[in-house]
Amino acid sequence: MKSDELIKNDWYIINNGLGNPVRAKLVESAKQGRGYKNAVLMDVIGSDAGLYDETGSVYVKDIIKKYKKGEKLK
Asked: Which end of the chain is less enclosed by CB atoms within 10 A, N or C?
């Protein structure tokens, strides 16, 4: 996804090397001053892949698409 398409407090599906795509909630806005960040703070639901849930930085290039409630993760 592009940085300008991201909305704070929305859910997204990310794939950042945890094995399977997982859900993550955008905690901060991707906008920074006049431009956009390359990495954003997200609350990652690692339990979707059998790991711990954590908050941390995620590269925008690793965000696949917006998550719709009830959607199955592949």
From this structure: C
CA torsion 50-48-18-4 (nearest 10°) is -160
> 70 φ, ψ to 5°?
90, -5
Query: Three-state secondary structure along the chain?
Result: CCHHHCCCCCEEEECCCCCCCEEEEECCCCEECCEECCEEEEEECHHHHCCCCEEEEEEHHHEEEECCCCCCCC
Whole-number pLDDT of residue 34 = 87
Separation of alpha carbons 34 and 55, rounded Å: 25
* Total of domains in the chain: 1
Q: What is the CATH number of the domain that holds 18?
A: 2.30.30
Overall pTM surpassing 0.90 (yes/no): no
